[in-house]
């Protein structure tokens, strides 16, 4: 630009026409503002782009973590299920060893009749003791309270008379597990029978007369007892 023109312009601006120069100043400022706004908008757009990218990255990362966690939890779950199954098997193997069994011990005496029905339980009506309340003195049957090895004994005494006898048995869960015969032609006589059996919980055990002479049993006597007793060994 010519130096004279600049001078003129300066003079013009300072002296001659205030409003027109003011307009120029205004336009210049507006332009400047517009340029600054444009730069700002560009900056904002770029920031938004960056934010978008960061958000996308974050979402991807979260998705990845979610998948990894899911896989880990799945694995953990399967492993734990396997371990639990193992523990369960071990526990059931050890259940019998770990189980605290009740005290089972009973003794009953005094048949309620001299002439019990054959093959039915002989009812020993007097319970001397019965720790687990497993013997029923109204039916003559012992019911095993737990699985286990049991021992049973019965003593059979004959009533006074000629040719008395009784063929008797211990019956466990419907099976004969001891068989015996008490016989005496003219005098009182006792003998015993034992059985060792494995019983499941709820099995019944009783003594029965398979065959007998009439009025063969000693009922309630001070010196000779007809008895039925048993206990849980293990
Ligand atoms: C019969 O058994 C019940 C229950 O165990 C007992 O309370 C009762 O004393 C027994 N009876 C006799 C005569 O032993």
Describe the structure.
The structure is a single chain. By secondary structure, the protein is an alpha+beta fold. The chain has a domain of 128 residues: Jelly Rolls (Sandwich). Strands 2-1-9-4-7 form a 5-stranded antiparallel β-sheet, with no helix packed on it. The radius of gyration is 53 Å and the shape is rod-shaped. The site of 2-acetamido-2-deoxy-beta-D-glucopyranose has 6 residues, from strand 2.
Can you give the helix content as a percent range? 40-55%
Order of strands in the sheet with most strands: 2-1-9-4-7
Q: Which sequence of SSEs, written as H and E, runs from N to C? A: HHEEEEEEEEE
Structural class: alpha+beta
CATH architectural grouping of the domain at 105-232: Sandwich
The portion of residues forming beta strands comes to 25-35%
Report how far apart the termini are.
123 Å
- The general outline is rod-shaped
- Largest sheet: number of strands, sense, barrel closure: 5 strands, antiparallel
Mean pLDDT: 89
User: For the record, what CATH class of the domain at 105-232 applies?
Assistant: Mainly Beta
Rg estimate, integer Å = 53 Å
CATH topology of the domain at 105-232: Jelly Rolls
Question: Would you summarize the structure shown here?
Answer:
41% of the residues lie in helices and 30% in strands. The protein is α+β, with helices and mostly antiparallel strands and 234 residues long. The protein has a 5-stranded antiparallel sheet, with no helix packed on it. A 4-stranded antiparallel sheet has the order 3-8-5-6, with no helix packed on it.
